[in-house]
Amino acid sequence: MLAVLAHPIYRSLFAAQALSLVGTGLTTVALGLLAYDLAGERAGAVLGIVLMLKMIAYVGFSPIAQAFAGRFERRRLLVTLDLLRAAFVFGLPFVDALWQVYVLVFTFQLMSAAFTPTFQGTIPDVLPDEKRYTDALALSRMAYDLESLLSPLLAGLLLTVVGFHWLFVGTTAGFLASAALVLSVRLPQAEELDEAPFLQRASRGVRIYLATPRLRGLLALSFAVAAVGAMVIVDTVVHVREVLGLGEKAYAAVLAASGGGSMMAALLLPRLRTRLSVRSIMLSGGLVLSILPFAVLLRPDFTWTLVIWAALGAGMALVTTPAGILLRRSSHAADRPSLFAAQFALSHACWLVTYPLAGWLGVTIGVAHGFALMAIAAAIAVFFARSLWPADDAEVLWHHHESLEHAHLHVHDEHHQHAHEGWEGPEPHRHPHRHGALDHAHAFVIDDHHRLWPR
């Protein structure tokens, strides 16, 4: 799996991602301390609002940002967003009111909502080979899990010698280093998109997503992950402190077990891909999330809690890590950033629902029964995923084209074999042209010529 780091461009991008994640992890710790410094015992409510603002930014702004992002050179856009994120974080140590925290955090998350899908959509173009891309996805998953394990440890070490405000400075340095690494490489530019109306560009990714059966299945599985994952994130502390009667170290160990299980699944993914289809791997992860949470009803001791949380982390990783493969298969290069933005927004919309639900269930019916109800929700989601995502998920499909006349930016591929009246300019170019009715087969994705999935 580490062989993919031999690719010089990807190696720099992976290092940039790792530095950004470490910086984000330091900010998470520092925000908690800043909230307590400003709000005291109301710090939990403040962090809840911050989390809500993050989800609103991700869900609402990501598709809109991608409608504009295709008009800019990728490297310049990513560097600019990194610099803006560094600037907003650098302002946090100087705030003295909660409204200032909310404004800076929200604008910071808006930049992340534009940065992350653009970054994710660039990797498939850097690594067009699916095996290498699978390795890259596994490494990316490990980076996220390592961040959740190492950032609190690094923050703890730094806090022994400096005040928590300096953690924001560390975050700023991480984003600046990330910008420098992205600036050091030449990135493939996305294919030029049509000058479609803004609303059409903003909804393009969601339209492709919802019209593709395998991606409708992915959305259902994303809800299963959000249902169980929200319980893990929100209610683990209650389970450890109230049910097990243990302290902060035990709480950290249980969360680390979840991250460790996720890392193990990511490490195994390239090997699993040689034996199983992506559909089988992801549905297996969903099955784990549908069954294992019921074990919490048995009031497991600390050791079994570690085992259960590790298995839940593995189940979530088996669903989320291969998602990029499906997005890559389901789009042309020009549409890929919009499709990654759609996945980013829709999956976070699931979390926007399940986060408050997990908190409410933990308070009203208890953590164990909350896990059981979320497992039922996950099972229903997995059932829909299995129904929506055909078992015979062929990439090459026979399909019929009706006769059509329109104008759009195009090259002379298999769908554009037409005569010109004079020279229409270099490809890709735009002019009115007609498509005759035909039946043929090729790798099928939803685009301007294929608006409906063939039956």
Quick structural overview:
This protein has 455 residues and is mainly α. It is 69% helix and 6% strand.
SSE topology:
Layout: H1 8-39, H2 43-69, H3 74-90, H4 98-126, H5 130-159, H6 165-183, H7 198-211, H8 213-243, H9 248-273, H10 278-291, H11 302-320, H12 323-329, H13 336-364, H14 367-388, E1 396-401, E2 404-410, E3 429-435, E4 438-443
Antiparallel strand pairs: 1-4, 2-3
Helix pairs in contact: 1-2, 1-5, 1-6, 2-4, 2-7, 2-13, 3-4, 3-6, 4-13, 5-9, 7-13, 8-9, 8-10, 8-11, 8-13, 8-14, 9-11, 10-11, 10-14, 13-14
Key attributes of the depicted protein:
about 450 residues, mainly alpha, Growth Hormone, Chain: A, two-stranded antiparallel sheet, 14 helices, about 70% helix, globular
